[in-house]
Amino acid sequence: MTDAISVRLSEVSYAYRRSGSFKLTVSWATVSPRTVLLGPNGAGKTTMLSIIAGVLRPASGHVEVGGLSLDGGDRAAYLRAVGWMPQQIAPIAGLSCREQIAYVGWLKGLGKSEAWDRAVGTLADVDLAELADRRTSDISGGQLRRISLAQALITRPSLLLLDEPTAGLDPNQRSNFRDLVAGLPGEVAVLVSTHQVDDIADTFDDVAIMSEGAIVWHGPLTRFMGLATDGSVRPAEAAYRTIVHESD
Amino acid sequence: MAVVVAIVALFGALTIPFPSLMSSELQLPVSVIAPLGLPIVLAWALSSSDPRLELGTVRRLGALDVALAVGWCGLAAVTAVILTLPGSPEAGLIAARATIGYVGLLLCARWVLPTDAAAAVPIGYVLLVSFLAGGSMRSAPPWAWAIRPTGDMASWLIPAMLLLLGAIVLWRYPGGIQHGAT
Amino acid sequence: MRIRTLLRVAPGAWLAPVMVGLLVLYVASSITFGPREPYGLYLTARAMNGLGLIVPVFAGTAAWEGARLVRGGVWGLPMTRHRIAVAAWSFLPAFVGGLIVLVVTTMAVLVPQGLVVPDMVILGSATVILLAQVALGFFIGTIAPRAIAIPVVVLGSFMTFVLPRVAGSAWLRHMSGTTLELCCTTDQVLSPGVVVSIVAISAAILIAVAILLTRRPRMGVYPVVFLVLLIVASGVAMAAAPPTQRPYAERTGTADVCETRDGVTVCVWPEHRELAPRVSRVAAAAVDAWRAAGVTVPTTFREGEVDKSDPLTAGISVRSTNSRNSLIELLAVAVAPHFPVARDEPTCAATHEWRSSIAGPYVWTWLATEAGIDHQSVDNYFGGGARPDSDYFPDAPKSLIVPVLPLLEKVWELPPPAQATWVRRNLRALAQCDVLPPLDPG
User: Fold this and answer.
1) Quick one: which of C18, C26, C12 has its CA closest to C134?
2) A96: which DSSP letter?
3) C83 in contact with A, Cβ within 8 Å
4) Closest partner residue to A90 among C2, C71, C80, by Cβ?
5) In angstroms, rounded to a whole number, what is the distance separating the alpha carbons of residues B37 and B30?
6) Are C113 and C36 in contact (CB under 8 A)?
7) What part of C 19-58 touches A (C-beta under 8 Å)?
8) pLDDT tens-digit readout, A124-144
9) What is the rounded CA–CA span in Å between residue A49 and residue C369?
10) Does the pLDDT of residue C376 top 90, yes or no?
């Protein structure tokens, strides 16, 4: 059983410099160990996860994970407590899988030798131990996603943020990836953004839905599935459409 | 291209002292150096395409790439002819020859190097010329075609051959070394 | 990143051995174009000939590193390390590779000259230039497409060494370090203006890079930050040490390697220790000849600072390349200092016009001839009716600017005591400023 960890966003706002039309304004909290964030393209899922990950700095508001504040004196501890797997994954030219993971560990504040040692175990966690010495530029897209997951895991975070982790993967790879996430250590809570709603029932406890830069619905999976019209072939999709249409 | 032409027209005949192994320094005209900007821009253009996407297109994008590179050089040659009118023929011809040769070098280098790195090859060539070609332009060996007198036929033949070879490489390997042959 | 990883993946690390070979060859060949003085400052400065090649190449590899991080999405990752620390580790191989090449080429110049200690101020200045340009190269690699960043950094950096050579501005040449290689003969030291210029400009570049890497403002702000910092740095440097056209200043202190022969003492800088016997031999012979002719001359010739109030001491600056003839010329100038060749002008020349200086060429020719200079040398200077260049003496009466050798012929026709009197009177005049020399031997 995964431990719960609190994620709290208080009146967080963010607007992109070059795109005046989009504005994120979120006040939201969850203590669920496995939350999925759904929403149409351009809803602000990636922006919100990027803010929680510490990649984007909000214009206003306050972000807290497990009692650690992003903008306080404990920023370093915060960033180590939050693992981030972005949507776009790129190999760092010339580095092997182990080197790339160790490098990201070092970026997150681990000592060089500690990061180097941890990289082996982290590669094993994502079932890529045998590729430790292979260059990241020479591995497949699915393997690269696992490297990215390993990067997020190297600091042994309490919260893992996965942005569209299975986008572009074939059904088999998707299933493998889902198993991988399901098999993560119990102390790691997961917040996943996706718009693939068909398989969320097997993996998540909580559902949040974003639309136009705001959280429009949040609740337990059971309540979410209850929103589906009776007899739906794809109940999760039906529930999702109900909420999104209501919010429109 | 416009910037390079302006520099050649205004300062083409000026010389700049470059380091040399053969004498204390070698005076290189601006018209040899300024065209180095053209292969850089061309390399950028070539590297910003998506070769995997282009390999699957119906349009002959490889031919268009070759046309871009050769057209680039053709434009340089025409500009050189125009530059000969106001009275600085040497600078214009030197710049045209340099453009042809540098673009040829870039395209040939893409055979063995990623396009990004190949862009530095013409610069490496100019440094090599500066280092090893001797103390004066008149006594430069044939391989230092960029600084030979413009009346020397071989100094035009070598860059033309480089461009031809480079165009063939570009035709066969439009995505450069990383993406193989069509 | 681990050191082993850095060494494996960084082009700066692979290029260092190649560059060492090329640069040693280049610097070793270029040093043959100058005199060989075992003076640490001079030799280190000559080794800086290679700076204009080392810096662009390693700045280019730093651009590669910057582009590598951008392509790998590193800047988009949440990190607890400061961006400057991440950048510094990334361009470390480029910087260290360049530094190794710089040090090895310097040693390649110094070692053949014996146990010469490199000048740390020059090496330090070059290191600062390397660091600033490598950091700038890295930064450009993070903002420009790699196909443009690398060649632009290599070419741009190379041009910062080449273009200032043709620019008239000393400031431009100093700040790029182009003038380092022009420093210094044994009686010179590096001008503080050069060091201040280099440090100020390099600091401005480093601060701008640090600000832009950390703050990531809009693209349009980048040139503004660089421009403002460069202007401020220029102002500070100008105020601290105005740059002179030349990269050197006079070396202070007194030469203390002395050799006395027949009552004549010659003191040279330690770097000229091996020249002392030869110089003192020529000086003793010359002084002996002048004394025999009845002319009282200094008995001590010294490099470095001299006490101008002591009539028995004169200043000289010797070179390892000086022949016997050129040593006699130097000694004659030391005895009869005149414009523009005087090493030490009389004190009065600082405040008054040195009108008597017109006597210099005539007295110098007499002294040099008396000391046994090759007649061909005198002919080279004043044969064919040559006279002092009137441009140097715009206020001298035309009657005084006469062909040198014909006037000397008249002097040489006088009996020796009268010649000595003519020389003594003109030497006295040369030491004053407001008098016209009694050149007419009649």
Assistant:
1) C12
2) B
3) no
4) C71
5) 12
6) yes
7) none
8) 888 888 999 999 988 888 888
9) 92
10) no
Any chain A CB within 8 A of the CB of C68? yes
A245: tokens are 């249409």
What is the DSSP secondary structure assignment for residue A177, as one 8-state letter?
H
Is the preceding peptide bond at C267 cis, omega within 30 degrees of 0? no
Please check whether residue A9 touches C, CB under 8 A: no
Rounded-to-integer distance, Cα C365 and Cα C375, Å: 10
The CA-CA-CA angle for residues A213, A214, A215, to 5°, reads: 140
Interface pTM (ipTM) of the complex? 0.83
Put simply, whether B75 touches C (Cβ < 8 Å) is no
Q: What pLDDT digit, counting tens, does each position of C391-435 carry?
A: 777 777 888 888 989 999 999 999 999 999 999 999 999 988 888
CB pairs under 8 A between A and C: 68
- What does the block give as tokens for C346? 């009389």
Distances from the Cα of A242 to the Cα of A39, A213, A239, C181, angstroms: 12, 18, 5, 77
pLDDT higher for C212 or B134? C212
How far apart CA A35 and CA A21 sit, in angstroms, is 28
**Does residue A48 contact residue A38 with C-beta atoms inside 8 Å?**
no
- Specify whether the CB–CB gap between B119 and C151 falls below 8 A: yes
pTM, two decimals, is: 0.82
Beta carbons of C279 and C267 less than 8 angstroms apart: no
Contact B36 C52 (CB under 8 A): no
Cβ of B149 under 8 Å from any chain C Cβ? Answer: no
CB A109 within 8 A of CB C80: yes
Phi, psi of C254 (to 5 degrees): -115, 135
Q: Max alpha carbon distance in chain C (Å)?
A: 96
User: Which residues of B fall within a CB distance of 8 Å from C145?
Assistant: 44, 47-48
**CA-atom Rg of chain A in angstroms:** 18
CA separation, residue B51 to residues A83, B39, B176, C249, C270 (Å): 34, 19, 8, 59, 67
pLDDT band at residue B179 using 50, 70 and 90 as cut-offs: very low
Of the candidates A108, A59, A56, the residue with the CA atom closest to the CA atom of residue A82: A108
Determine, for residues C151 and B46 on separate chains, whether the beta-carbon distance falls below 8 Å. Answer: no
Contact A75 C71 (CB under 8 A): no
DSSP reduced 3-state for C14: helix
